[in-house]
Amino acid sequence: MSQREGGESGSAADPRMRGFKTRAEVAELWNWIAATIRPLDAEEVPLFEASGRVLAAAVHAPVPVPPFDRSAMDGYALRAEETFGASAYVPAVFQCVGRSRPGQRCAAAVGVGEAVQVATGAPMPAGADAVIPVEATRRDGDRVWVSEAIPQGRHVSRRGEDLAGGDLVLPAGRLLRPQDLGVLSAVGAATVRVIRRPRVVILITGNELLAPGTLARDFQIPDTNSVMVQALVARDGGAARVVGPLPDEEPTIRAAITGHADDSDVLLVSGGSSAGPEDHVPGIIAGLGQLVAHGVALRPASPTGLGLIRQGTLPVVLLPGNPVSCLCAYDFFAGPILRRLGGRPPGWPYRCVCLPLARKLISLVGRVDYARVRIRDGQVEPLATSGASILSSVSRADGFVVIPPDREGYPAGAPVDVWCYDPHALDPPQAGQPDPPPPNPDQSSRKAHHTPLG
Amino acid sequence: MSQREGGESGSAADPRMRGFKTRAEVAELWNWIAATIRPLDAEEVPLFEASGRVLAAAVHAPVPVPPFDRSAMDGYALRAEETFGASAYVPAVFQCVGRSRPGQRCAAAVGVGEAVQVATGAPMPAGADAVIPVEATRRDGDRVWVSEAIPQGRHVSRRGEDLAGGDLVLPAGRLLRPQDLGVLSAVGAATVRVIRRPRVVILITGNELLAPGTLARDFQIPDTNSVMVQALVARDGGAARVVGPLPDEEPTIRAAITGHADDSDVLLVSGGSSAGPEDHVPGIIAGLGQLVAHGVALRPASPTGLGLIRQGTLPVVLLPGNPVSCLCAYDFFAGPILRRLGGRPPGWPYRCVCLPLARKLISLVGRVDYARVRIRDGQVEPLATSGASILSSVSRADGFVVIPPDREGYPAGAPVDVWCYDPHALDPPQAGQPDPPPPNPDQSSRKAHHTPLG
Hints:
2 copies of one chain form a homodimer.
Chain A: H1 26-36, E1 42-46, E2 59-60, E3 70-71, E4 75-78, E5 92-100, E6 114-118, E7 130-133, E8 137-140, E9 143-146, E10 156-157, E11 168-170, H2 178-186, E12 191-195, E13 199-205, E14 209-210, E15 221-222, H3 225-235, E16 239-246, H4 250-261, E17 266-270, H5 281-288, E18 290-294, E19 298-299, E20 305-309, E21 314-319, H6 323-341, E22 351-356, E23 361-362, E24 368-376, E25 379-382, H7 392-396, E26 399-403, E27 409-410, E28 415-420
Parallel strand pairs in A: 5-6, 13-16, 13-17, 14-15, 17-21, 19-24
Antiparallel strand pairs in A: 1-12, 2-11, 3-10, 4-6, 4-7, 5-9, 8-9, 18-20, 20-21, 22-28, 23-27, 24-25, 24-26, 26-28
């Protein structure tokens, strides 16, 4: 055999029609990714577009929130000590001397025996130190009867009680939640600095491929990887452009790669990554920069590659053309790269549940296995599929089990971690489903004012 | 007291400056929502935009996938029985009589003692019934030595093995995953019928409100609910438009509601929902249709309302202006309505974990409590916040615990269900983090061809 043996850094041992003699370990590639990929730079985006983005720098409150003492209830502002001893039988009486409305300075002030009508959010009038809710009052003309004693400060929202000026509002790296946008708005942030979205070019190669969603004809089939991968990229916070399908021609693929190198942050090349005669991509990447790995001890994504071009700044993932292998290689390598570039938690965005195996799960020692499984009656059923092209298996599957390289699998009954494709498939019954918390029988008279609910 | 007592169906008892004397139960409102809200009609969208959408009708395969027998490996197609007995020491020898390439009809056929070179995805040549992977072969000119015996059918992907013609591809109601788009592409679906996105108008009311992200001035504060709610709506599959902030003027708010009734599927009105003198929204809704409930036994979202206008076809949720109450009311009522309209699972899109309480959690009997909590060292810590306006509490919180109306709370150590705002906060270490599965010491020689990984 004329094949050069691998192992020397930077050489371009060509496995075409000779196969992979050695394969990279998943673990070493993960370590390489963790050591190599750093978050992108920041950009400013409007608050309305910032949900799910990652904060590039900590935000501090330039002003206190709330910016002034205000009422937290609809009711009457008064001096708390004047309610002491008040009850439904012996109400305290106050003179209503004015009204405080939201958004306006309150002209009225509260003196002895006086109260000011306040709406929620309205400024507290001078002289008052508490708000009695309207439910605990009765009004007749300018008189207000108060049937409850309240302590000082009750139902008053103090200046700065939510955030004091200078307080840390949110730390750098925060994945922004809907309510975080509310907090940022409260401190006057109309825009926010977030990590830039990774720009991802998805290059689809394969002589046999038609445009996605085309009916198969002759010996050509529709491409499936572009639609799948662009959705994965969007899920992981990237902005994807699809190029192709391109034919398996070395100059065409090389031109597409060099043509898109300058305006992208990751290159994902689907197809042409294995050891067939038409598999030009590994050689192209080795020629343009560094082919970090080609061939991985991972089933069903063995023909996966990893490279760096553009002076070591542009990561390239060589995804197998077979759709299940492509999904597996995306999940193991492209996804973590994208999430790290975007400053996100690099781990899988799948929910993990630990459940017992219904049947034994078989694997081969020496490689990581990405085994598709179903969950039935709280047990994990391996899906019997061998082919990497059985894309419907990842639609039928509820998730996958990762079998490490030193295991031959797991026996029936063994607990395994399942990474669920649907994040909420196994949640308990909850809000909005007709399985609410039990109503309180003692409170059955608490109906809505005018509910047709019975 | 001059107040009319509530309870009569359809009447318009006005609680302004009198307060809620009775409140609807969360459970009965959930039942009302489940009984009233039905999924919207369908629309056709391009496959590239269908991720995360909900399939409106089942999809069947019009053609088999794959559409022809093809090779699943790079290697040589041959007759399996001719490899029987082959080994590294006694290889079987074949004559290579041609080549099958992806996308093209294969002209060559395999006879006795013959093999055809095949690439992954290429059509199987006539006469062959198995593919020997290139790794198990050696080639010299037209001769191919095969060092392994393989059974019939090995590494052949049969016509229809993924999906037979007529097979169910995906059922109606499916929340489309990235890989589902791949499967739909494989059966030639360029577009897909999905449930229409709910069109949501978010109406912000309040005299005290400035545009979001504005610095507070005088007694005005920036609105926080529009940015928060539009992000929640997007998360739940809706398309939101924000109107406002509008002043607390009855004619202005009424005009905005009627003006947006015809081109929306849900109306969310923030503010003006309570019992203050400026709270016009409940009366407007009662006048335009039906105020199903006003006042809910839910803390901190008691001033929440639910209505139906436009001849009973347009649900309206009256959200409290206080931001934490607004989030709580959205989570309890608006979210389930939106998800049901969109055909999604109606339950909370939060992950639920069951963990013990670090301290006791106190609630009042007679209402549902939405208690914000943190998770520290595997224990649940209640966040000590009373104010519904403390928006930073829902940024500091990891999630919430729902305390049913018949409970006074839970003692320290009691296990409680926490609904986590971040879906993956508590996942175990996983792919792409530097905590990979243990490498197999027996396989330490399995390096990539030319990896700089060491």
